[in-house]
């Protein structure tokens, strides 16, 4: 009898949570429609200068929808977001790079632009394409660099640095091997899971992360809201 009562309680709580999530989803949808239609005045003015570098994480299955990815980038360009990093685990977006650039006449790959330029707002849109394999390769290169540097110290009569690899040491190694990359101010996740899906962790130490839901339900109003909310956040950076 006790087990039956617990099961009933579990089902009841599950129903309540489902109803609550449905209400939130409907509320977000309505708010997104109002933002898109320009009804909510506060969303019309964005301090876009605060968003210097944006990262977009897309679940690999959704990343095959090139037309929606292009639409998202076109929205960002019209809003004024000019520096964007596109990421998916399996490298689907990297394989679609030519198709994406073919539909975005105002975009350039980050390889053609000095990284320092991404700290400013250029006339064109700058795109970076990253996959999970890039992160693994970067860590291997950085670890190898640290090992070689320690080996050089030993060969020159110095002591081997046996301490645990620290964050500053790793960051310096990543920078030297050319794998550090710009740190995004905001990261938008499009997919069913609330996770950055393996996006290089050393690049998101101070990044705001927002889950946007599936790319199938891409909405302009939701994008505007996520950017607006970010511009209103005050971040305290530790030493």
From TrEMBL:
Q: Where is the signal peptide?
A: 1-25
The entry's keywords: Endoplasmic reticulum, Magnesium, Membrane, Signal, Transferase, Transmembrane, Transmembrane helix
Q: Name one GO cellular component term.
A: endoplasmic reticulum membrane
Q: Which gene encodes it?
A: LOC107478935
List, in alphabetical order, the Gene Ontology terms for molecular function in this entry. Answer: ditrans,polycis-polyprenyl diphosphate synthase [(2E,6E)-farnesyl diphosphate specific] activity
EC annotation?
A: 2.5.1.87
Which InterPro entries does the UniProt record give? Nus1/NgBR (IPR038887), UPP_synth-like_sf (IPR036424)
Name its cellular compartments. Endoplasmic reticulum membrane
Where does it primarily localize?
Answer: endoplasmic reticulum
Q: What is the protein name given in its UniProt record?
A: ditrans,polycis-polyprenyl diphosphate synthase [(2E,6E)-farnesyldiphosphate specific]
* Top-level lineage group: Eukaryota
Q: Which cofactor does it need?
A: Mg(2+)
Do you know which PANTHER family this protein is assigned to?
DEHYDRODOLICHYL DIPHOSPHATE SYNTHASE COMPLEX SUBUNIT NUS1
This enzyme catalyses: n isopentenyl diphosphate + (2E,6E)-farnesyl diphosphate = a di-trans,poly-cis-polyprenyl diphosphate + n diphosphate
Protein's UniProt keywords contain Transmembrane: yes
Which pathway does this chain act in? Protein modification; protein glycosylation
Q: Which family does it belong to?
A: Belongs to the UPP synthase family.
């Amino acid at each position: 009898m006790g087990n039956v009562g617990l099961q009933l309680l579990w089902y009841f709580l599950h129903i309540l949570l489902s109803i609550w999530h449905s209400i939130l989803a409907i509320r977000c949808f309505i708010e997104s429609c109002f933002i898109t239609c320009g009804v909510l005045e506060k969303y019309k003015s964005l301090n876009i200068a605060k968003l210097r570098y944006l990262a977009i994480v897309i679940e690999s299955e959704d990343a095959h929808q090139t037309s929606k990815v292009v639409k998202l980038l076109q929205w960002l360009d019209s809003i004024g977001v000019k520096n964007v990093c596109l990421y998916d685990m399996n490298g689907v977006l990297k394989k679609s790079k030519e198709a994406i650039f073919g539909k975005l006449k105002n975009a350039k790959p980050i390889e053609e632009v000095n990284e320092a330029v991404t700290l400013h707002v250029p006339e064109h849109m700058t795109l970076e394409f990253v996959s999970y394999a890039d992160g693994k390769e970067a860590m291997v290169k950085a670890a190898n660099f640290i090992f070689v540097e320690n080996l050089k110290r030993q060969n020159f009569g110095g002591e081997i640095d046996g301490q645990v690899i620290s964050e500053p040491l790793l960051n310096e190694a990543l920078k030297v091997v050319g794998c550090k990359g710009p740190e995004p101010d905001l990261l938008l996740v499009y997919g069913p899971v609330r996770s950055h899906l393996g996006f290089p962790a050393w690049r998101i130490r101070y990044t705001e992360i927002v889950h946007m839901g599936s790319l199938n339900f891409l909405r302009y109003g939701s994008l505007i809201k996520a950017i607006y909310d970010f511009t209103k956040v005050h971040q305290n950076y530790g030493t």
